[in-house]
Every structure is written in C-alpha cells, then in structure tokens.
Amino acid sequence: MRSLLFRSGGAALGYDVTGQGEPIVLVHGLSGSSRWWRRNVPALSATHRVYVLDLTGYGAARRQRALGVRAAAALIAAWLDHLELRHVTLIGHSMGGHICMHVAALRPERVDNLVLACASGLLKGSPYRLALHLPRAALMGRVTFVPRILADAARSGPFNLWRSATDLLKDSVQDLLPQLSARTLVVWGARDALVPAPLGRALAAAIPGARYEEIPRAGHVVMVDAPERFNALVLDFLRGDGEGGAA
User: Fold this and answer.
1) Which of 5, 10, 127, 220 has a CB 3.0–4.6 Å from the CB of 165, allowing a cystine?
2) How far apart are CA 155 and CA 143, in angstroms?
3) Percent of the chain with pLDDT over 90
4) How far is CA 102 from the centre of its chain?
5) What is the pLDDT of residues 212-221, one digit of tens each?
C-alpha cells in the first residue's frame, strides 16, 4: 500500500492506495482515520483499487485545521479530478458519509455508487449532546476498538474535533438527497447510539432507489463491529446482487 498526499488551496488530503480494478474511495468519520478501515480493505481490494483517505486535520493529514463538510467535499472532488477517477464507489462512515453525499452531488459524472455507513447528514442537536453520547456509543460497539478511537481523537486534537462536530451539525443534506443520482446503499448498526437507526431509514427513504441494510449486533462504527457482514453487503451491492450474506 502506497501513502500519498494531495494538496489544493492550502489544504492536504492524505491517502493510501492498494489493489486493482474500479475505484473505491473510503472516507472516515469524526475523530477517525484511514486505520478505521483495516478490517475492510483486504476484502474490497481483492476486486477493486481502494483509496483510503485521511481527511484534512486527521490521521496522516492531522497537522492542519480541519475543514467543514462542504469544504472537505470540494477538496475530495478536486482530488477525483486530479486523478481523473471515474466509475467511483464512495464509501463514507458517519461524518465521512455526510461528506460523500456532497461529493456525489458535486461530481455525479464520476461517482457511480454511494455507500453510507451510519452517516451524519440528518443528525441534529448541539456538539455538547453529541459528546454526551460518545461513551455509550463506544461501549455499544467493539470494545477492543476503543483505544484506536481515543488515539485518533488525541492525534486530531480538541479544536479539530469541535470544529468538525459544530459544522456537521449545522449542515443538513435534506434538500440534497432527492437529487443524488448514484446507486446508493445505506448500512446501519442497529445499536448505533450516536446516529440512531431511524435516521438511517429516513436517509435511505429520501434517496431515490436507495437500499437500506441494518446489522443487528453492530454499533456506530459498523464496518469495525461487523466487518464480514459489512464487506459482504458492499461487494454484493457492487455486483448488483439483491441481497447480501447472512446476518
């Protein structure tokens, strides 16, 4: 896997690339990093060229001021243009899914498929309330992943976390959803305490033709809590199959 950096307008986007085939782009969420996809990359890269991003202010690109969701989407759109990527599958978790919806709207000619994992686009409330739900959200998922969550949050720093949380809570995608033309799969953890499953069902209902899948024993970091099921759902979706593997 090669680690690279894309710069545009003073902002940097980190990314790793591996595999061959049609492109898949993985976008992490708030307080995350490219490492959150380690249980997914091997399965996805067996049949696709996988790009794993570190958003500005996070992971390998952490020594910067975090961007808002729309500015982050514009940077990713510029990166897609730079690499001349087409027939892209965007997979975004939480804030990353929120960003991916904006990217799909900005570059419909490049983005064929959209996978939204516990995406934050319809989440409302204050950053304080969001912070109050974080401990329960962590405990409802894979407890062994908590050290990675804490380590990446510390690397990003409180300013970037606060800036990102404040911005995503102000930005609703409600009016954007009916205009999305990419084939869309919405995947949710039934035990998500941060972005509850009813928001996932509402998101899927508002996107034309979207398919909704809920994983019973998974929490907010659904691709970490249930990686085999998540990977099967994504790959079956990309093959055009009607159903994924067994729950």
Assistant:
1) 127
2) 20
3) 68
4) 12
5) 999 999 999 9
Name the token pair of 200.
């996932």
Q: Which residue has the tokens 């570190």?
A: 54
Quick one: which of 206, 164, 180 has its CA closest to 65?
A: 164
What stretches of the chain adopt beta strand conformation (E)?
2-8, 11-18, 23-27, 49-54, 88-93, 111-117, 183-189, 211-215
The answer regarding whether domain 2-239 maps to CATH 3.40.50.1820 reads yes
Classify residue 193 as left (phi > 0), alpha (psi -120 to 50) or beta. Answer: alpha
**Tens-place pLDDT, residues 152-174:** 888 888 888 888 889 999 998 99
Both tokens of 129, joined, read 């309330």
> Cα–Cα distance between 224 and 105 in angstroms, integer?
27
Distance CA(38)–CA(215), nearest Å, equals 19
Reference 189, options 118, 133, 91; nearest CA is 118
Q: Where are the domains of the chain?
A: 2-239
26: DSSP letter = E
